Amino acid sequence: MLSEIIDFTNCCTDDKKIDFLYAIFKDDFVDNDVHLNGTVYIDPKSHDKHEEKENIFWHIVTRKDRGRRNFDPPRACRIKWIKPIIVNHSHAKIKLFYYYEDTGKVRLYLWAFENDFVVILQKLGSSSSYLVTSFYIDYEQKREKFQKKYEDYNNKTDERLNGCEWF
Questions:
Q1: pTM, whole model, 2 decimals?
Q2: Is 161 helix (H, G, I), strand (E, B) or coil?
Q3: Per residue in 74-99, is it b (16+ CB within 10 Å) or e — as a string?
Q4: Tens of pLDDT along 114-134?
Q5: CB atoms < 10 A from the CB of 7, how many?
Q6: Strand, coil or helix: what is 56?
Q7: φ, ψ for residue 158, nearest 5 deg
Q8: 121-153: buried (b, 16+ CB within 10 Å) or exposed (e) per residue?
Q9: Within a 13 Å sphere around the CA of 20, how many CA atoms are in the beta-carbon half?
């Protein structure tokens, strides 16, 4: 289901990597519509840009460190995984769960658990959502946290999530 990760070891400058990655993002989400479960449109929020690229793009290729976002190769090299994870959300290798965030919003997590990669979506309306972020899970505590969220959702631990499903 998931392609090989992009190998940047013998590559070029970060600017050229960004341009290459943006072309993938643009093809997957801006130039072509993506739908979750065939019904929920994934809005790339093209009106919300920084340096002529969608803000969400920056969230999926950079990582926040000490208040600023820096290019993050482990995230960036998996950019081709985001669309297949969304489209194949019901695959056995994807753990799907909803989580009630501290902000009061319910988000949908699509966790490719065997590959330590997660895609997080936020609902916009009855038939659209947007990509909040995606990232590579690079430490055990985060993996454990996602497993707990997954189990809590499936065990119906949080009553606020009752009836929250999008489809």
A1: 0.94
A2: helix
A3: ebbbbbbbbbbbbbebeeeebbbbbb
A4: 999 999 999 988 889 999 999
A5: 9
A6: helix
A7: -100, 110
A8: bbbeeeeebbbbbbbbbeeeeeeeebeebbeeb
A9: 16
